[in-house]
Amino acid sequence: MNKLILVPDVHCRDFYKPVLQIKNTPIVFLGDYMDPYFYEGTTDKRGIENLEEIIDFARNNQNVQLLVGNHDESYIWSFMGFERTSVKYYDYLHKLYRDNIDLFKPCLKCNGVLFTHAGVSKGWIETMNRWFELDEGTFRLTQDNIDNYITEEFKNELQYEFATGRLLDKYLRSPIFSIGFVRGGDAPYGGPFWDDFNMEYQDPDNWNLIQIFSHTQRKVTGSIGINGNGYCIDSRAIFEYDVENQTVSKANLL
C-alpha cells in the first residue's frame, strides 16, 4: 500500500462518486454524510441516496472505512438538534445509521497517521489529562493509546439511544464529543468530532503522529490547511495520502 484515498465531508454532495470505481486502494471517508448546504443545490433526498450508496460501497468493499462526523451524531443518537436535514427523514436516517453502525468508526490509526473527523488538539488532550489527574488516576492520553480511547468511548456511548440533557441543550456523555466555545459549546476545547482547525488546533506536545481530518471547511475549494503535523483537508474535493513520502495532496481520479 503506497497511498490512501481521503473523502472529507460529503454533506449530500456528489463529488465523492469517482472513488466508487476504486477497488483495491484504501479509502477513508471522514464523516458528515448528511445535512446539505442548500445554497449549493443539494437536497435531503439526494443526500439519503448518496448515503445509501456509500454504505453499500463500504459493505461490499473491505478497503473502505467510514468515519463518524459531528453531523452524524444527530442521527446515531436521537435528536441531538444539530441536524439540517428535514425532520421528516429523521426516523429513516436514525434506523439507517443504527442498522449499519458496524461500518462506522470514530477514528482510524494506520501507517503513523491518525484519521478523525475534526482532529485531536493539544488543548483538548491537556484538558482531558488534567481531569484524569484530578480523579487521582494514573491513566493519561498519549499518541499510543488515543485511538483505543476514542474507540472505546464511542462503543460505550452506543449503548444509549438518546442524548442527555444539559442546560437547554442535548449532549452526548463522553468527552470525546465535547464542543468548544468557538463552535457554540460549553467546553474549553472541542474533541475529535468538533475541534476547530482555525481557532483550536495545535499538535499535542511531544506527539509526532500525523493527523488528517476535515470538519473546518476552507475558503478555497480543494485546499489544505497545515499546522505542525495536522492536515485539515477541505470538504468538496477528494485527496490522497502518500504513505512513503508522508504527504497529502488533492487527488486526480479522472
Task: Summarize the model shown.
This protein is of the alpha/beta class and 254 residues long.
Essential attributes:
globular, alpha/beta
Topology:
Blueprint: E1 3-7, E2 27-29, H1 44-59, E3 64-67, H2 70-76, H3 90-99, E4 104-105, E5 108-110, E6 113-115, H4 122-134, H5 146-157, E7 164-166, E8 169-171, E9 210-213, E10 224-227, E11 230-233, E12 239-242, E13 247-250
Parallel strand pairs: 1-2, 2-3, 3-4, 6-9, 9-11
Antiparallel strand pairs: 1-12, 5-6, 7-8, 10-11, 12-13
Helix pairs in contact: 2-3
Describe the model.
The protein has 254 residues and is an alpha/beta fold. The protein has 5 helices and 13 strands. A hairpin with a 2-residue loop joins strand 10 (224-227) and strand 11 (230-233). The chain is globular, with a radius of gyration of 17 Å. The two termini are 21 Å apart.
- How is the biggest beta sheet arranged? 6 strands, mixed
Strand order of the largest sheet: 4-3-2-1-12-13
- Give the helices and strands as they follow along the chain: EEHEHHEEEHHEEEEEEE
CA radius of gyration is 17 Å
Oligomer: single chain
Percent range for helical residues? 10-25%
The total beta strand count reads 13
Mean pLDDT metric: 92
Q: Give the low-pLDDT segments.
A: none
Write down the overall geometry: globular
